[in-house]
Structures are given as C-alpha cells and as structure tokens.
Design goal:
Layout: E1 2-5, H1 11-21, H2 28-37, E2 43-49, E3 52-66, E4 69-81, H3 90-104, E5 109-112, H4 117-120, E6 126-137, E7 151-156, H5 162-173, E8 179-180, H6 184-196, E9 200-206, E10 209-218, E11 222-230, H7 233-244, E12 252-258, E13 275-284, H8 287-292, E14 304-310, E15 319-326, E16 329-334, E17 341-344, H9 345-353, H10 358-363, E18 368-369, H11 372-381
Parallel strand pairs: 4-5, 11-12, 14-17
Antiparallel strand pairs: 1-2, 2-3, 3-4, 3-8, 5-13, 6-12, 6-13, 7-9, 9-10, 10-11, 14-15, 15-16, 17-18
Helix pairs in contact: 2-6
Length: 393
C-alpha cells in the first residue's frame, strides 16, 4: 500500500470516505470541516491502492497541557478504512506509517477519542481521561435548591462567546492536566462549528464578572450539555439550576462531567448517580522524549531507576535504560543492569498522563516492580493527576 499525505487532488476521496463512516455530506459539521478545516489547519495521511484511498487518519493539531508542560501534538480523528479494504489489517500499516512520521517530527505522544477501544488497544493506545456521565430527569430532582443572589444568566450568540468563555475556561482548567490550551483559532473552530450545529451558550456572571458558562444543545426531550465550566462549585450549581428551569419543555439533562465531579453527593437518589466512562485515549510515540521531559522532584535528585519498556508497535520504544535524576532533569543511559520496573507502552502512557498511579497499575498487574523503593520512585516521578479534556475533533 502506498502511504502519502493528502493534498487537494486526493481530498475529495477523503471527504467521500468521511461521508461513508462519519457525518454525512450536507450536515453542518461535514460542510464546515471540509470547507474551513481540512488541509487548511491539519494534515491527513492516506493509504492508497491504484490511486484509490483505502485508509486514512487526520492529524488535528492541539497544544495539550500535561504535567505542567505544553506539548504540540496531534489529535487523531477520522481514522477509517474503506469497506473493500476491511479485514486485511490495513489499520496496522496505517498506524506504523503514522508513528514513523510523527517520530520524525519529534512528536512525543498523540491523543484519540475511540468509537470502540478494542480497535486501538492492539496498537498501544490506552485510556488517559475518564468522565462522569449523568442522565438526570429534571422532573424528579432538585439539583441545587434555592438560587443564591448576585448571579445572573446571559444567553449570548455562540459565535460571539469567545471572550467570556475563554476567561472561565482558563481558570477552571488550572486544576487539571491533560487538557487543551485554547487560543483564538481553537475557540473559533469550536464556536463556529458548534453554532452551525445548533449549540447554544449561556454565561453566568457574579456582578459583572463571568464565573461560569455552558454550551448546550436542545434535542427531542433532552438537553445535552457539551461543555460546562465554572470557577467554583457555587457557580457550577447555579448553572445546573439554570437547566432545571427547562423542566416542562424537556424531561432530561445529559451531562458529561470531569472524573472528579461530586455532583452525585447532592442528588436525592442513588439511582441518579453517574457512571464512570472512559473518554479519551493516548499513546506515547517517543518514550525517550517523554521520559526526558519529566520534571524531577527534589527528593529524587541523585537517584537512579532501571526501567524496561516494551512496545510491540514501535520497536524504538522498546528499551532497557537507567534513568538518572538530577537538578536539570532526567538523563537516560544504556545499561546491562537488571530492571527493577517492567511495563509496556500503554502503562507508561497512563503513568505519564497521571490517569492511574504506579501502585494501582502494579496491583492490577499492568506493571512489574521488583522493589518497594522502585515503586516509591515511580509514584514520586509520576504523581496521579486528574485529566479533563473536552475536545471532539
């Protein structure tokens, strides 16, 4: 199979395969994506046979904030294979070519939102962000009780909402990791495409200061929140009180919160508790680059850790190295010493993102640790974090 970057000549084949697998031609997102985004803001890699597109991946650029550092990395979307090429394992070839290209570009990792996790797990992807999923019947519950004074709601055109939303988003995300740093282009993409799909916007203010917002869509009997951000818990509850006001016209509120969301503690029935759902997957493309990007806590300065990593998809990531920690960071050395830590690339990805702690992964059988001191080093180097990302393309 011939793999090459998509250009204007081959873009119509990409659009046709997207229509086959995802949004249909003529729908608002499809029309926006292929008129305003594809090739203008992203790259796409395609696999061809006799000049016919058989498989593709779109590399949509984002700045992702992980462990107090910003990384410019691709969000893989539009991963698809033409019906006539399915069952031939072309996905493996596509991933091989993608990872090889990204390593040459010095990309440390990628993210991806799976339709079905089993498609991507064989290629080293693992879940890096979890969400709490609520389906709340407005008729049966009192979300927040009495509204407090001083707060006002302002419905504004979605296309014009960047300024107040960006202020709240930046403040709310400061408590998390794994999120996208949004600048004007990211906000414009989100709000323009969202408005074309019927996304509405409400901003919550305390006095004159924006302190929360929600992007939402009205459906058949259900209001679906696409994004809800607030600077504090009181503002968050006020926004939910706003949606309680739709009872009578709508019966249910659908809300996908961050993994540390504790709204269920305020609900009157355990039947309304959310379920935890895996949301985003990640995949380290260059293990050495990621390890060398880590910050070293003072208590690790002068210490070493011998680690073995296995990666069946990217052989260059399979390594046995001694990690040396000093004030400047992490230095990697080849070694013949026996490793005290063994893991695959999926577990390293989850440690890096902070989705799970080292002891959790060890107890679950995902990593092998010979010594308690090595486990302490891992936990200190990779403290557990709360990941929160809310990008859909």
């Amino acid at each position: 199979m011939d793999f090459r970057l998509i250009n204007e000549k081959t873009l119509p084949q990409v659009a046709a395969l997207w229509d086959e697998c995802f949004e249909k031609k003529g729908t608002p997102f499809y029309e926006w994506y292929f008129s305003e985004y594809a090739l203008k803001q992203n790259r796409m890699l395609g696999g061809f046979e006799d000049d016919q597109l058989m498989t593709m991946v779109h590399l949509n650029p984002y700045t992702v904030h992980v462990r107090d550092k910003d990384f410019r990395v691709p969000y893989l979307v539009g991963v698809a294979t033409a019906p006539e090429a399915r069952g031939r394992h072309v996905m493996g070839e596509l991933m091989d070519k993608t990872f090889t290209m990204l390593r040459a570009m010095k990309i440390p990792f990628v993210i991806l939102m799976p339709i079905h996790a089993g498609i991507y797990q064989p290629y080293g992807f693992s879940f890096t962000a979890l969400r709490t999923q609520y389906e709340l019947p407005l008729r049966e519950i009192d979300l927040v009780g009495e509204s407090l004074t001083g707060y006002t709601f302002h419905r504004i055109p979605t296309k014009e909402a960047e300024a107040p939303l960006a202020l709240v988003y930046d403040g709310a995300m400061a408590a998390y990791t794994g999120y996208v740093k949004r600048k004007h282009r990211e906000w414009e993409n989100l709000l323009v495409s969202g408005s074309q799909e019927g996304l509405e916007t409400v901003v919550l203010k305390y006095g004159e200061k924006p302190c929360g917002y929600a992007l939402y869509q009205k459906g058949e009997g259900t209001i679906s929140i696409q994004e809800l951000m607030a600077l504090d818990q009181t503002a968050k509850l006020e926004l939910l009180h706003y949606f309680k006001g739709f009872y009578g016209t709508f019966g249910k509120l659908s809300y996908l919160g961050p993994s540390d969301d504790l709204l269920y503690l305020r609900l009157p029935s355990q039947e309304l508790a959310p379920r935890m759902v895996p949301f985003m997957m990640g995949r380290i493309v260059n293990a050495a680059q990621v390890l060398q990007a880590l910050s070293v806590p003072d208590c690790l300065v002068g210490k070493d850790l011998v680690i073995g990593i296995r990666d069946e998809q990217v052989p260059l990531n399979t390594m046995l190295v001694k990690m040396h920690f000093d004030e400047k960071g992490v230095t990697l050395f080849n070694t013949l010493d026996d490793p005290t830590v063994l893991m695959d690339i999926s577990s390293l990805t989850q440690l890096f993102f902070g989705t799970y702690g080292a002891r959790e992964l060890k107890d679950a059988g995902f990593i092998h640790v010979e010594e308690e001191s090595s486990l302490w080093t891992l936990e200190t180097l990779f403290p557990k974090k709360v990941n929160f990302i809310n990008e859909y393309f």
